[in-house]
């Protein structure tokens, strides 16, 4: 039997031990964490909608109408009018014929990939894809081939040597790097090799593109270029859950075959109602995206003047490369001593030697918040 306590001590010694923090307030830049007031730069609430009063009011109305729990899986008796209306609105938002709700982004990714592929097929994944995408490939029992980060030419070579069903899977915005996948090249390669292209745009939707339609829109692509689009609702949308958008045939296939959709309880309908409101705000509140761009410019300009080793990113994800896990943890602790909360990201989340601080910005950060962070980093 494994000595679990000894393994945990090894993680501590290697500066890889993870700890949970307790917050006692709504999501905002200024949080109450473990009983202490901290200025946070580690939330994915990019547009500041998680505690928006209209979203909260919609949640309360939904709970009054539907109660709290959905009661069952979508295919039993858990699929409400609120769920259905949200799916139709997400389809309209993305420009795809249909959309399908999942309970989490992790469940969406493993459900999509394992429903579409099996033994004898091949899934091609960017080496820096999110863990849920990698796990989806493994669970599908298809051959899993990984290509160097954003290296479209290497991917094309791999595809040229492969027979059978082929699925290319990539993040739209990479969650730990903040950079954008070369989606135009990937779409062309997918067409040339008769492969599906699936984009997980968890960190692009709401933030990039016209009305926040994400990284494909930002790069000038249309829904036909990205036939499988996955998005999460707990980041820029400020609520909870996930969805996939695609063709009528794709969505019906997932309803019939995606195990992580079929065999789990549906999202609470009240969450769906709250998300309908947040989706409207995402589409109409262009000032939130403009504000994010201003904050990114302000932070990057200040960081450049300080000579900080920032990774290349135009998104609200601004990684500060530390190298070792020990260094990243030490930087995070020194910032917290100055009242600023920034997570240290360490292996296995990122490759060995690339530990970092993952600084994330929100549209409701103020200029003085950015300046305070830069002063602490200096």
Can you walk me through this structure?
The chain is of the alpha/beta class and 378 residues long. The chain folds into two domains: 21-47 and 286-377, Aspartate Aminotransferase, domain 1; 53-284, Type I PLP-dependent aspartate aminotransferase-like (Major domain) (Aspartate Aminotransferase, domain 2, 3-Layer(aba) Sandwich). Helices cover 43% and strands 17% of the residues. It contains 15 helices and 13 strands. It has helices at residues 4-13, 53-66, 74-78, 81-94, 105-116, 131-140, 152-160, 183-192, 215-218, 248-257, 259-262, 269-284, 286-306, 325-337, 367-377, and strands at 30-33, 36-40, 98-102, 122-126, 143-147, 166-171, 196-200, 228-232, 242-246, 317-323, 340-341, 343-345, 355-360. Strands 3-9-8-7-6-4-5 form a seven-stranded mixed sheet, sandwiched between helices. The chain has a three-stranded mixed sheet with strand order 1-2-11. Helix 4 (81-94) packs parallel to helix 12 (269-284). The N and C termini lie far apart (48 Å).
Short description:
The chain folds into 2 domains: 119 residues, Aspartate Aminotransferase, domain 1 (Alpha-Beta Complex), CATH 3.90.1150.10; 232 residues, Aspartate Aminotransferase, domain 2 (3-Layer(aba) Sandwich), CATH 3.40.640.10. Helices cover 43% and strands 17% of the residues.
Oligomer: single chain
Largest sheet: 7 strands, mixed
What is the count of distinct domains?
Answer: 2
First and last CA, distance: 48 Å
- Strand fraction: 15-25%
- Secondary-structure-based class equals alpha/beta
Give the CATH H-level superfamily of the largest domain. Answer: Type I PLP-dependent aspartate aminotransferase-like (Major domain)
Number of strands: 13
- CATH uppermost class of the largest domain: Alpha Beta
Mean pLDDT: 97
Percent helix among the residues? 40-55%
Low-pLDDT ranges: none
CA-atom Rg in angstroms:
21 Å
What is the CATH fold-level name of the largest domain?
A: Aspartate Aminotransferase, domain 2
């Amino acid at each position: 039997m494994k000595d679990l306590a000894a393994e945990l001590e090894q993680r501590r010694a290697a500066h890889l031990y993870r700890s949970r923090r307790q917050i006692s307030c709504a999501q905002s830049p200024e949080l109450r964490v473990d009983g202490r007031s901290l200025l946070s730069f580690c939330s994915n609430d990019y547009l500041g909608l998680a505690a928006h009063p209209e979203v909260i009011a919609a949640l309360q109305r939904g709970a009054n109408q539907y109660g709290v729990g959905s009661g069952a899986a979508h295919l039993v008796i858990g699929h409400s009018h609120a769920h259905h209306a949200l799916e139709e609105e997400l389809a309209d938002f993305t420009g795809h014929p249909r959309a399908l709700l999942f309970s989490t982004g992790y469940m969406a990714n493993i459900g999509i990939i394992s429903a579409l592929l099996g033994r004898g097929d091949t899934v091609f994944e960017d080496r820096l894809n999110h863990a849920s995408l990698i796990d989806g490939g493994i669970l599908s029992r298809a051959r899993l081939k990984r290509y160097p980060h954003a290296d479209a030419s290497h991917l094309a070579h791999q595809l040229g040597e492969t027979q059978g069903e082929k699925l290319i899977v990539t993040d739209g915005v990479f969650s730990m790097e903040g950079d954008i996948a070369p989606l135009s090249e990937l779409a062309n390669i997918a067409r040339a090799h008769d492969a599906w292209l699936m984009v997980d745009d968890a960190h692009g939707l709401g933030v990039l593109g016209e009305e926040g339609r994400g990284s494909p829109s930002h790069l000038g692509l249309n829904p036909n270029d990205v036939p499988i689009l996955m998005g999460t609702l707990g980041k820029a949308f400020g609520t909870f859950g996930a969805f996939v958008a695609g063709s009528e045939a794709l969505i019906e296939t997932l309803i019939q075959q995606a195990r992580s959709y079929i065999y789990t309880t549906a999202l609470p309908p009240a969450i769906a109602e709250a998300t309908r409101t947040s989706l409207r705000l995402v589409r109409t509140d262009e000032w939130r995206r403009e504000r994010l761009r201003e904050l990114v410019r302000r932070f990057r300009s200040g960081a450049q003047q300080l000579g900080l080793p920032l990774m290349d990113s135009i998104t609200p994800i601004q990684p500060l490369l530390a190298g070792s896990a020990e260094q990243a943890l030490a930087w995070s602790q020194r910032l917290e001593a100055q009242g600023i909360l920034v997570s240290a990201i360490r292996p296995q989340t990122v490759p060995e030697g690339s530990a970092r601080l993952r600084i994330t910005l929100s549209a409701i950060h103020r200029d003085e918040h950015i300046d305070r962070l830069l002063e602490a980093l200096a």
